[in-house]
């Protein structure tokens, strides 16, 4: 582990109960740097593992024949998922990215859930899509056991605009409140 003089000084000044966390964060930071270095040196910056076992190939082939929408949705989720096979996004994102109506996508999600291609959990009002790790995988094999942790979140441009408007509106109200308070 490479620790600079400044980091060593900070470490020494930490309470003993925080030193282990400091070392853990430093190790994680170096691990991330190593992964970035590997990514830059590799022609494969982004990849998706597909289980080529004949049963899984048949399952994917069946889905293509059964529902093009469900297959496209599954491949979109698999392409965009994080390294733990999860992704959080709204139906609005799915509608915009795939060009289907909410009802059509709902039917596709139901089909994918029914046949165990994906699982869906709730996080507030958003869906967390967990892609079946027996079909697709994006991380190293040693992370296979952690398929349901972590998530990549996608927010559409229109959702961001709505959020910006809400933030700006609240900001303006708070500014107005402050200015009216000063005048009193």
Task: Supply the key terms.
184 residues; alpha+beta; Arc Repressor Mutant, subunit A; 2 domains; two-stranded antiparallel sheet; 7 helices; 6 strands; elongated; disordered C terminus
Describe this structure in words.
With 184 residues, this protein is α+β, with helices and mostly antiparallel strands. It has two domains: 5-41; 49-156, Arc Repressor Mutant, subunit A (Orthogonal Bundle), CATH 1.10.10.10. It is 59% helix and 12% strand. It is built from seven helices and six strands; from the N terminus they run ααβααβααββββα. The strands form two sheets. Strands 3-4-2-6 form a four-stranded mixed β-sheet. β3 (118-123) and β4 (126-131) form a beta hairpin. α3 (54-66) packs across α4 and α4 packs across α6. 16% of the residues are buried.
Question: How many individual β-strands?
Answer: 6
- Uncertain runs are 174-184
Mean pLDDT level:
77
Q: Please report the distance between the alpha carbons of the first and last residues.
A: 59 Å
Instruction: Briefly note the CATH topology name of the largest domain.
Output: Arc Repressor Mutant, subunit A
Give a quick account of the main beta sheet: strands, pairing sense, barrel closure.
Answer: 4 strands, mixed
């Amino acid at each position: 582990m490479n620790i600079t003089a400044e980091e060593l000084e900070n470490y020494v000044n930490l309470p003993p109960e925080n030193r282990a966390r400091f070392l853990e964060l430093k190790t994680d930071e170096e691990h991330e740097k190593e992964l970035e270095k590997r990514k830059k040196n590799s022609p494969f910056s982004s990849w998706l593992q597909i289980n080529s076992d004949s049963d899984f190939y048949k399952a994917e082939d069946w889905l293509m024949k059964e529902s093009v929408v469900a297959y496209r949705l599954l491949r979109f989720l698999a392409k965009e998922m994080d390294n733990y096979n999860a992704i959080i996004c709204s139906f609005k994102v799915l509608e915009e990215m795939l060009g289907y109506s909410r009802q059509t996508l709902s039917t596709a999600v139901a089909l994918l859930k029914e046949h165990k291609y994906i699982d869906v959990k709730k996080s507030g009002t958003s869906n967390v899509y967990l892609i079946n790790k027996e079909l697709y995988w994006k991380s190293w094999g040693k992370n296979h056991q952690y398929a349901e942790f972590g998530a990549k979140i996608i927010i559409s441009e229109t959702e961001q605009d709505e959020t910006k408007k809400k933030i700006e509106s609240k900001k303006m109200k708070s500014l107005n409140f402050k200015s009216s308070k000063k005048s009193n």
